[in-house]
Amino acid sequence: MDGIGLVIDTGALEYATRLVSGLGDFERRDLLSSIGALGESQTRRRIVDEKTGPDGTPWPPNREGTPILVRSGQHLLASVSWIAGSDEVQWGAGWEYAHVHQDGMTIVPKTAQRLVFTSGGKKVHAKKVTIPPRPFVGLSSDNIAEIEELVSDVFGGAFDAPVPVAP
Question: Which tens digit of pLDDT belongs to each residue from 6-57?
Fold first, then answer.
């Protein structure tokens, strides 16, 4: 009488068990708070040091040649913050003019023929002023890699473990 043999390779099951073992005690809000703090730090770094959009495009220089997005009393930088809930995290800038820098804007006079302002110590008259976009909120590929590393660290590097391959 011939028999039937059955071999069960549990390597993949052990790998899956290792991946999900820490999820029972996992506190989502803690992870989201860590991601929010990291996102805030990345945004501040972009404004102060990198001076590029999330896609790596350098910001256009300003007319005065002064540090971009940090000259006016640190309003933008001071307003960068994050908030985490139980299912999501958000970060950005709360300053009322942050959107002007993120998206750009053309400013025209409402009631006068020309805008009048001071730039570089000189009085300027203009029909319009175009502020180019200088996106500071968003994720670069390096930002994403930092967040992935943080998540991997939270789960004890389980997601870095090699996937077992059947022989």
Answer: 666 777 777 777 767 666 666 788 899 999 999 999 999 999 999 999 999 9
How far CA 42 is from CA of 9, 45, 91, 96, in Å, comes to 44, 5, 10, 21
Residues 38-41: contacts with CB within 8 Å, 24+ apart? 38/146, 38/147, 38/150, 39/82, 39/89, 39/91, 39/139, 39/143, 39/147, 40/80, 40/81, 40/82, 40/91
Residue-wise pLDDT for 120-133, tens only, equals 788 999 999 999 99
HSE of 60, CA atoms in CB hemisphere, 13 A: 11
Give the relative orientation of helices 28-45 and 141-154 as an angle to the nearest 10 degrees. Answer: 150
62's tokens: 């300003």
